[in-house]
Amino acid sequence: MIDLLTIFVLAVFVGFEVVSKVSTILHTPLMSGANAIHGVILVGAILITGSAESTLELVLGLVAVFLATVNVVGGFVVTDRMLEMFKR
Amino acid sequence: MTVQLMYLVASVCFVLALKGLSSPKYARYGNFIGAFGMLVAVVTAYLHGVVHNGLWILIAIALGVVVGIPAARSVKMTAIPQMVALFNGVGGAAAALVALAEFFAVPGTTVMFRLATVLTVLIGSVSFSGSVVTFLKLQELMTTRPVLLPAGQQLAIAAGVSSVALCALTMVVPNGFLLWLLAVVGLALGVLFVLPVGGADVPIAISLLNAFTGLAVAASGYVLANTLLIVAGTLVGASGTILTRLMAQAMGRSLANILFGAFKATTAVAQGEEQRTVKSGTVEDVAILLGYANNVVVVPGYGLAVAQAQHAVRELVSQLERRGVSVAYGIHPVAGRMPGHMNVLLAEADVPYEQLKELDDVNPGITSVDVAVVVGANDVVNPGARDEPASPIYGMPIFDVDRAKSVVFMKRSMRPGFAGVDNELLYNPKTTLLFGDAKDSLTKLLAAVKQL
Lengths: 88, 452
Hints:
The complex is a heterodimer.
Chain A: H1 2-18, H2 27-37, H3 41-50, H4 55-84
Chain B: H1 2-21, H2 27-49, H3 54-74, H4 80-105, H5 111-138, H6 152-172, H7 176-194, H8 202-224, H9 227-250, H10 255-260, H11 283-291, E1 295-300, H12 302-306, H13 310-322, E2 326-330, H14 341-348, E3 356-357, H15 359-362, E4 371-375, H16 384-387, E5 406-411, E6 431-435, H17 438-451
Parallel strand pairs in B: 1-2, 1-4, 2-3, 4-5, 5-6
């Protein structure tokens, strides 16, 4: 358990550090990109559904897979559309 | 072992993605790297973690793709913030559902495990319902003003207290019903939390809810003992918190003020005299003003984007430059509906990046600006934010266009801005109002300037 806590604490610092200097122009794309990344809950949803035993678990898991997929693909596509505007 | 390595690869991709997204040069690569990391993670999870129901999972993923991609592709650039809010909400809901499903599979024994479960369910539900409310507000399916319920504060406190109590109870008595109840209370809490946030502050609430979803995902990582979820969720939670603070700073407000002080002062602003005179001009007047100016600043706002007038304003600016007028765009950090939103909208219309100036570039030289043109903006040029401590937007940095030699204010009507606050600038003798649809006015103005 302490291993997981260590990972958590270190990740907090990395998260702070990585975005500490970002210009306002990129606030919206950055938020949207981070939004896509938390769609990684899809991994959790797949794992839980893949080992589901009861119908309840299966239904909950599948809904989670569906929603998380929307989060992931929608998030990355919308971020890319925004950033496309900046290319020159 | 291989699985853990693959998750590590994905985690590194996510860090690089956030890093890339923070710099204009590498932002797009950053997004690709993030998507690549996600692909690695999902394929790994599918190949190694799926014992059965594989086909069902693929169908659910396919459905998600079929819904998500067209939604993201077809959304108008002006509606991006509410789309991000929706994507964020469904992510939060997914996290809560994962924790619920895991609870029914293995109710868990350790304190940490149960704590992680209740936190995932609670934060995930708050994030989901909160995001839905922000979506409704930005889509203007409900009022954009702060909604203050009769006993809103007490209700919110009650929901907060009962959610904490339910968390504690569920940890002692691991019971499915209690967990469902917690999810319901979380949903209510999310709604009560976002309702009083009004107007221009909604995007900040979205950013905060984004960070919440990150935390819910991190907590679900504990539930499943999955390092990737912990790392990615925490990264988003931490960076989202910083981003939220940066956004709040750009508006000159504290986060607490935005979330809890929400525009209480609105009623306190004294109403001026009933009939106040404004000066409205014709297209020809304004064309002459602009055509013979040396130095012009254009301050665009969300109204410009709504009228789809980005191209029209760019053409007018080009025409003025051909006449030797020096023109810059003054982009307020919160112009549009989200910080940086206006930059995206103008970039879409091929406005050169170098012409986009920030507050600190424009304000020091504002007194030598001959004409400041305000198009579809309102709150970001409202001198009340600077001079009127009673004003609900007091403290937000503004463009001091009232100190320019003259001001042209293009407006559809006398309706106040997104924040619902009256603007003293409209009554300033230096101000000429040009009523009408922004695109229409700009097109006529372009023709008139060509005639000069």
